[in-house]
Amino acid sequence: VSTVALQRRMLVSLEINNKDPAYDWFLAWMSHHTANVSATGSKLRSAAPWFRSHQLSVQTALQQRQNGSSSVFFKLVAGPGIHWLRYRGAWMQVKRERETRSQQLMSGVPWETVTLTALSRDREIFPRLLSEARDMAMRGQEGKLVIHTPWSIEWKPFGQPRRKRPLKSVVLDDGIAEKVEADVKAFLGRRKWYEDRGIPYRRGYLLHGPPGSGKSSFIQALAGSLSYDICLLNLAERGLADDKLIHLLSNTPERSFVLIEDVDAAFNKRVQTTADGYQSSVTFSGFLNALDGVASGEERVVFLTTNHPERLDPALIRPGRVDLAVLLDDASPNQARRLFVQFYGTEDGSSEGWEKLDETELNRLAAEFAEVVEREIKLGRRISMAALQGLFIRSSAAEAVKGVRTLFVQREP
Ligand SMILES: Nc1ncnc2c1ncn2[C@@H]1O[C@H](COP(=O)(O)OP(=O)(O)OP(=O)(O)O)[C@@H](O)[C@H]1O
């Protein structure tokens, strides 16, 4: 055995491509262990002793504090080239390479790979390192809702992960939230049932109703409560064509719900295509194909929302595409009462400078408030939950009871 071959046999390599999420996890893990330099350059913390590198590149990060102040950090990350690091007592070589000649076809991002090489006897450090890197990435998002939007043909997290909204804070009419939640949970627990019968493992929901009734808020809160992400898709977005849409829908990140808002606005009628001067380049039939084309064994949960369900083509809302449709309506007296109690019955409410309500007073005002709402509804007038929220934010409980009547609008039933 030649020396080179012997060396080769004694080494083990792992290649990670930037198509794979592990690539970002690993780089984030590595940069976490390298030097931090403050914006003024004054506080250079030396790199971890076990890290040897001469080809660092800079990543700028903004740290926002709770009190609103912020500072900018430059983080030194391992740039393209060769680096050495010691992990759990074993040395390994990290080679980061960028393919300069070709780029990812649609997104224009260059291909990159990192190759980790260690001694064969240390091979078990790779899975350990990767799972540590993954856990670190996940911890950063723990308790948060991640919203992804299309970035060319890929999904990328949009903005910072948001704080999860408690499901109970979205007040729907009796039984609606529970019904949708139970349906989603039942679906997510039945993968095998679908597989055994060869049925595509997908489920579609349509939430319809007037603006400000909580459609988006509810879907986001539900996703958060199940530790799912949201993939937010705007069908009317320029440049989104049928082939891209199919690709996007069949390549959603794991554990994510697809949310397509105002689905009526993209195609009011089946005939509306680019040829008719409509801006969207997604065709209605392309959209149906994209919804249907779920790869076998893959899970897909799609939520559609609309203010105008009557404008939707029956082909879109047939079972298989929309399996459960629910109406989220303007405020009912009961919803109004519950939202009132939620606002004025909490510690936060009373600390805003409003009078502190004891429970009897709170319930009395809430009942009075619900009565006003009921009377107005009987007169054919309506108010959205969003309008009630706005009123509660700017008024005390007693002012809200007095002022709510003026906010009702005449709306088609
Ligand atoms: N049922 C509800 N319970 C609690 N808050 C609500 C409810 N409905 C609306 N809101 C509040 O109103 C605002 C708008 O709600 P949201 O965007 O979810 O409404 P929507 O039905 O999706 O509206 P649109 O049809 O215009 O997209 C949010 O700040 C939300 O907190």
UniProtKB/TrEMBL annotation:
GO molecular function, a single term: ATP binding
Any one GO biological process: mitochondrial respiratory chain complex III assembly
Location relative to the cell: Mitochondrion inner membrane
Keywords, in A-Z order: ATP-binding, Hydrolase, Membrane, Mitochondrion, Mitochondrion inner membrane, Nucleotide-binding, Signal, Transmembrane, Transmembrane helix
Topology class, membrane: Single-pass membrane protein
SMART domains assigned to the protein according to its UniProt record, in alphabetical order: AAA, BCS1_N
Domain AAA+ ATPase, first and last residues per copy: 201-332
Catalytic reactions of this protein: ATP + H2O = ADP + phosphate + H(+)
A single cellular component GO annotation: mitochondrial inner membrane
Pfam annotation, one family: AAA
Cross-referenced InterPro entries: AAA+_ATPase (IPR003593), AAA_lid_BCS1 (IPR057495), ATPase_AAA_core (IPR003959), ATPase_AAA_CS (IPR003960), BCS1_N (IPR014851), Mitochondrial_chaperone_BCS1 (IPR050747), P-loop_NTPase (IPR027417)
Name of the protein in question: AAA+ ATPase domain-containing protein
